[in-house]
Structures are given as structure tokens and as C-alpha cells.
Amino acid sequence: MAKVFRSPARHGYAVEVSPFIPNRVACAASQYYGIAGCGTLLVLDETETGVALVRSWEWSDGLFDVAWSEANEHVLVAGGGDGSLQLWDTNNHSAPLRVAKEHTQEVYAVDWSQTRGENLIVSGSWDQTAKVWDPALSRSLTTLRGHEGVIYSTIWSPHIPGCFASASGDGTLRVWDVKSAVCRLAIPAHKAEILSCDWCKYDQNIVVTGSVDCTVCVWDLRNIRQPVNQMLGHAYAIRRVKVRISKPLFMSNICVCVFRFWDLSRNQPLLDTVEHHSEFVCGLDFNLHIPNQVVDCSWDETVKIYTPACLSAATHSTTP
Known about the structure:
Distance between the termini: 28 Å
Shape: globular
Number of strands: 28
Structural class: mainly beta
Order of helices and strands: EEEEEEEEEEEEEEEEEEEEEEEEEEEEH
Helix content: under 10%
Radius of gyration: 18 Å
């Protein structure tokens, strides 16, 4: 049974579970579906009886993505429709700690690096650039250009320092080397816009993409001539893909109101289809602390925390 938090007149774009606090979730949401109006950043705690609001902040433009600091349990960064990144602190009730505004269009993606000894933020924007920042959000450290369409997703490699992947409306998946400020790989991954990408957490060579063409592709960066796996069956664009940290590989992707959970180690990889929203589902995260728990947010003004039956069943079936 899902626990539900309702955010009236705020349409969810992204959720992320805290890397420090097992029951804490951040959600970036926008008014009027992100087309106009302001944004709200929500910090929520799962309780025994439901989901409680810990803190919320208003922003003057829509908010499209959020990422927790990997070094400070109180700090998080959000990306806004006004081209800004804002650094927020859950101990500060009023204003952001810092605002950086170098992008000239919407910031649609933010991510905080997870590799040891590195503490960096990457942002991806509709201005077709990605920028790398230090955690204080002072002036950006580097700006990376190469995409010929808007950037929808920027994700740090969990394995390789100074390396991130980006997905764009130009149909390419790109892998970047921050130190050299160059694009190492440009993969024509789909013949349509790519809305999301994610790294596999236990194999540094595997990246997953989701596209407007209604397919999910799994790429091995050592051989990019064709995907190692392609998942069909969606009727709508894939808004978000997420790879769970486990073996065998479980993957979830989202389109209109629908989740599909896939286990790529199986001959028939589709585990389950979940339909529990009435609008676009835009945000998804797996809880690293609580096995099999999933958090999502939707344009139907809700954040839901739950454990899909297919994940717990699959886990049991793979246990010796």
C-alpha cells in the first residue's frame, strides 16, 4: 500500500531519497505543469502513518530537478526554469544558501557526484550546455558544449571520477571527461529525443536511456554500435529511467501514469506494470536504505512511497 503526500497545485518533476536519512525524500515541483508560475521544493519524511512535510520553499520559477549533497545531510541543490541552480539547507527556513545563474534557459537536470574524494555538481540545461560546479555554487568550473538539442538529463558516473553522461533532444547520449573538458563518446542512441539516462551502479560500462520513441535501450560503452538490450512495449515517451543497485539488474522506467519494472537477467524481462497515478509520472528513485522501496512523483500532485510486489518477489526468488 502506497503512502501518499499531496501537494495541491504543484506538479512533481523529480524526487530523490536522502543518502543519509533513510525515510527522507526531496521533491522538485512546479505550478501549472512547469509551463508558467512558480516552483516548490519539498522535503518529506515517511512516518508510520504516512508522509509528513519537513520543509518547503517557494521559488519564483518552476523547479525541474533536485539532488542531495553526498557530503552534508542538510544540503540539496535544485534546478529552475529561470536558468538558476539554488543551494538549499534544511536548517534554513527562508532563503537558499546560494543561487547561481549562468545558464540562459531552463535547468532541467542536476546531479551530485558520488565517487570517493570528489564533491561536484553537474547541471544540464535547455541552452544545450552542461556545467560543472563546486558545492558552494560559486562560478562554474567548466562549461561543456557539443549537444545540438536541449539537455534533459545529466548523471555522474558512480565509478569514474570526473565523468558524467548526458541525454539530449538531439537523440545522442554523450559521455564527458570533466578534467579534459571534452566529450569522450557521442552515441546516436535513439532516432528521437532522449529524456533520461542512468548509469548501472555495479558495471561502469553500462548506461540506460529512455526516449520519446517509447523504447528503453541498454548500452555497453565498450561497443556502441548497437544496444545490448532494448525494451519495447510502452505506448508513450519514457520520461525517466532508473537502475537499481542490485544484482541481477532491475530497471524501472516511466511513461504516462505507468511504471514498468524490468529484470534484464531474465528471458522475459518484464516483471510488472504499475499504474497508480492519473497523470504523467516524472520522478522516480529507489531507496538505498530500505530494500525494494520506491518513491515517485507525478503531475497528479502526489508523491508516493511504496514497495512494488514484483521487486520483493523477485528478490526472494533470487535468494539461494
